[in-house]
Each structure stands twice: as structure tokens, then as C-alpha cells.
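Technical annex B. To support the medicinal chemistry partners, we prepared a structural model of the target in complex with pyridoxal-5'-phosphate, based solely on the information shown next.
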Amino acid sequence: MTLPIYMDGHATTRVDPRVVDAMVPFFSEHYGNAASRHHQFGWAARDAVAEARSAVATLIGASPRELVFTSGATESNNLALKGVMDASREHGNHLITVSTEHRAILDPCARLEQQGVTVSYLPVREDGLLDPNTLADQLRPTTVLVSVMSANNEIGVLQPVAELARVARSAGALFHTDAAQAVGKVPVDVVADGIDLLSLTAHKFYGPKGIGALFVRRGLTLTPMVDGGGHESGRRSGSLNVPAIVGLGRAAALCQAGMADEAARMTRMRDRLWVGLQRALTGVSVNGSLVARLPHSLNVTFDGVNGEQLLMGLVDVAVSSGAACSSSRVESSHVLAALGVPESAARASVRFGLGRFNTEAEVDRVVETLRSLVTGLRTPVPVFELADDDPELPPSWGEERVLKVN
Ligand SMILES: *Cc1c(COP(=O)(O)O)cnc(C)c1O
């Protein structure tokens, strides 16, 4: 077993070696520009892009022409939110989202607010889910767009997307979902679920970073954010990143082919982790619904430990905590706060993201690591007491404190 053990699959995943193999020829031999129409270098690139587009479309039940390649879910979310709100000014200026969204939704929303869009941030229940009735109550005639993530990146809960989309659309609003964590892991079907726009990114499902897509339902117009050569039907200009797109396509095909088996294996390992932690320790609890949940995801609070010490002690396990989720800021999780988890408990929470390359032996090792670490952190350190009643004290002992073990 090589250390540290990677269990941070919500942050990113290792690129599957089969994906790397598929990409390499598009750096070395087939380096053409997919927009070059007059030679075989261009045709090879164009065909590879078409094949990848189909694979991604199949994975989410879309038609290939409904996909716009982007640099990832952040860009897809920006294009969806800003592009739709801009194109729908006639119709209204109200957008609805949820307080537990990723920053790649919340930050574009903040920008839109500066530009005069009204944004409603809906609360979630204690289990992390948005109640469709809460959404129904907030819809207005001016609501243009509802954006609710499919799966949460911190706690792994799956929102009732099909029902939320139905509620949104019945009020005349469009429905967008940031499905970065769900695509490739659980079945996603934009037709069955009634989704108008969907964001995905390859590096969350064993593909490369810097490539993703936005699904835009046929007939829906949005204002592009990048103008240039009119690539992607004018919705996102710039020469296509062919090797990355090939990688995205291969990653999508692999996930599609292995989804049922992989989900079952992830569920078994996730349950082994949770049962193992419960056997090893008292005072452990899962954040978010245990039922509506990604198969590979678990967010656990360890009562009575200091979050910083917990994370510092986890040297052999690569995970994230409720304190370090947004890399540059040291603030505790807004997602756990929205669930009503107190700040100290949020900081003492660990997000486990299992993946394709984890083993049961690694799970057992992680359980053991946490058992000994948490037990150690909970063991009370000897209490020291000021010996201020000590008759031996010199009269001017000042700052020099005499300590005695209690
Ligand atoms: C990772 C993630 C993103 C950002 O994706 P990038 O491809 O890194 O831009 C957005 N939303 C969610 C829910 C994510 O998990």
C-alpha cells in the first residue's frame, strides 16, 4: 500500500490510465485543429471530437449538438447563469439557487447581483436536501432560472433534481444543475429529469482537468461569454482542446460502461468505512442524508476533537475537512453551517471521497488511522494548576509560574 492514501475524490480524481492512453496520440500524431477543413490532420481531430461529444451526450441522455465544450464546471456554470440571465432580460431578472452550492455557482450569482439580478438563496433541510415546496414558494413570474446542484461536493447528498426541475418548469423557469459530482457516478438523464442546462467536468470522473461541458437544451439561447471564431455554434469560441476532449469522451465512456458495478463497489467500500468508524469510535455522525447520497461519499463529524489537530494528524490520508474546503480561505464550511452543524463540529468533520483506485485494505487502514488519532486527541491531557498556594513561592515570582500536575 502506498502512502498517503488518496480519499479526496470530490476535489479531483486520478486520470484513468486508459484515458491517458487515449489522449496521447492527440498530442503527438493527430495534432490538427478540429476546425481545419482542408486536410486530414483537421479531419482526424474533428472525428475524435465528434466521437467524444457523442460519448458525453450518451452519458447524460443528451444529443451531441446540445453540448458546448468548456474548460470545466466553473466555466460551464458561469456560461449557464450569466448567459441565460443576459439572454432573458425581457422575461425577468430573478434567479433562484441554494445556499449549499459550490462557489462556482455562488460567486457568479454574487456578480449577477452586482449587475442588478435578484438572487434567492434557498435554505436546505437538516439532511442537506432542498424541499420542492420551498422552491415552489419562491418562484415568481419574473423567475428566469433555477439552479440546484445534482450532488453536493462536501456532503455528497443528491438533490431531488427531477422533482425540482418539474416545479421550476411548471412556473415557466429554466432549470440548470451543476452536476460536476454526479456525472459518471450515478445515472443522469437530462430528458427524463427535465433539465434545461447541465454543467459537468472531466476531472471529477477520472478524466483530465481543464475540460468540461455545458449541456444546453436545443432551442435555448444564451449569450456567449467568449467571442471569437464562432466555435461550438458561437456559444464558446476558441480552438478546441482536442486531447482533453478525447480524454473527457473516453472517461465518459468508461464511466457509462462500468457505472452499475462501480457504484456497487463504491457503496460497499463506503459502508465498510462507515461501519468501521462506528465500531472503532463513539461520537461519530454522518452529515447529510444517508439515503440520497453519492455511492462513494461520506462526510463524518468526530465529536470532541479539535479540527485542526485532526487534519494535522491525518498525514497518511489525503482528505478534506470542514475547515479547509475552500483552499485559499480558512473559513469553516458554509455547507455544514447550512445544515445547522456548529462551527467547531464543522471543523472536526472529514470528507471522504472514495474512488476507482481505492481498495478495501485502504479503507481498513483509514479506519485504524482515525481510531488511533481520534482516541488520542480525545484523551484528556494532564490538567495543570497554578500552585499559587505554595508557601515556598518567592514573593516576586512574577510571570514565572510554578506548575504542578494535578
Ligand atoms: C469541482 C466542482 C466544480 C468546479 O469544477 P472545475 O472543473 O474545477 O471548474 C464546480 N461545481 C462542483 C459541484 C464541483 O464539485
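Notes passed to the chemistry partners:
The CA atoms of residues 76 and 93 lie 20 Å apart.
Residues 72-74, 102, 104, 149, 153, 178, 180-181, 201, 203-204, 212 surround pyridoxal-5'-phosphate (CB under 6 Å).
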